[in-house]
Amino acid sequence: MKYIKKIQHSAAYIQENLGKIQDGTVALMTGTGLGKLTDAIENPTSLSYDVIPEFPVSTVKSHAGQLIQGTISSIPILALHGRFHLYEGLDARQVVHGIRTLGELGIKKLILTNAAGALNPSFLTGSPMLVEDHINLTGTTPLRGKNEDNWGKRFPDMCLVYDKQFRKIAKDKALELGIHIEHGVFMQIMGPNMETPAETRMYRNLGADAIGMSTCMEAIAAHHMGIRVLAISCLTNKNLPDCMKAAPLEQVISQAEQSSGAMTKLICAILKEIHEITE
């Protein structure tokens, strides 16, 4: 089956089971340890990824693998509770299957979250970081292969992937709520292995402030489809190449869970402002 037909098959099943997606619906994607963001969704209806035709199924235990529809403060929400990664053996197109499906459903606004390691030594562990730009160091892209002209251009411009208006709203809301927020460049690598001290030093020298194993693929695909993107990382640990400490997954999840309260509060505040913006 052609790639676009697989996406359309997934979208048709979701519409059949959840109904037509409301205009103005804002989509969320939760990262490692940040699944509690979905607890804020009121009157939720969910579909497990494994029942949606053509949908990949996450093999990572910290990712629930559910599509959740509901509201937050009367704002219609569609959340991907768990994501897919290149390190699971999937190709870039499979990794962004959920994002492409959101676009096919008519989603125009997306908030991505992730758990990331801080490379900038001045950043505070546990703080959210507003992604202002990214470096894709995976060696691949979800745009590889035949372009679907109905989705976007063959050679999309990438000078402003992360919506400038959305980022200003995030900064303003963090200030209003008294939440310390960093802002910088996010880098995606393949994974699943963590970085060596030498690699950490190189990544920092390349201009990255935080690093993780997701998000860039999704942001590229969403931007290609004309979806406005906001991305916020939870800085779960700090990578200092001259005094590296192990960062086991359990620690990453624990820190993300500890920070999820502030992240949820911030994102809920951002949602209201984003929802009111007309296309």
Mean pLDDT: 91
Helix content: 25-40%
Please outline the major beta sheet.
5 strands, mixed, barrel
Q: How large is the radius of gyration?
A: 18 Å
| Total helical elements | 7
What is the domain total for the residues? 1
What is the level 1 CATH name?
Answer: Alpha Beta
- Strand order, biggest sheet? 5-8-7-6-9
Report on the structure:
The chain contains 7 helices and 9 strands. With 279 residues, the protein is α/β, with parallel strands linked by helices. The chain has a 5-stranded mixed barrel. 32% of the residues lie in helices and 23% in strands. The mean pLDDT is 91. The radius of gyration is 18 Å and the shape is globular. Strand 7, helix 5 and strand 8 form a beta-alpha-beta unit. It has a single domain, classed as Rossmann fold (3-Layer(aba) Sandwich), CATH 3.40.50.1580. Helix 1 (3-18) crosses helix 3 and helix 4 packs across helix 7. The purine nucleoside phosphorylases catalyze the phosphorolytic breakdown of the N-glycosidic bond in the beta-(deoxy)ribonucleoside molecules, with the formation of the corresponding free purine bases and pentose-1-phosphate. One of its GO terms (molecular function) is purine-nucleoside phosphorylase activity. Pfam families: PNP_UDP_1. One of its GO terms (cellular component) is cytoplasm. Pathway: Purine metabolism; purine nucleoside salvage.
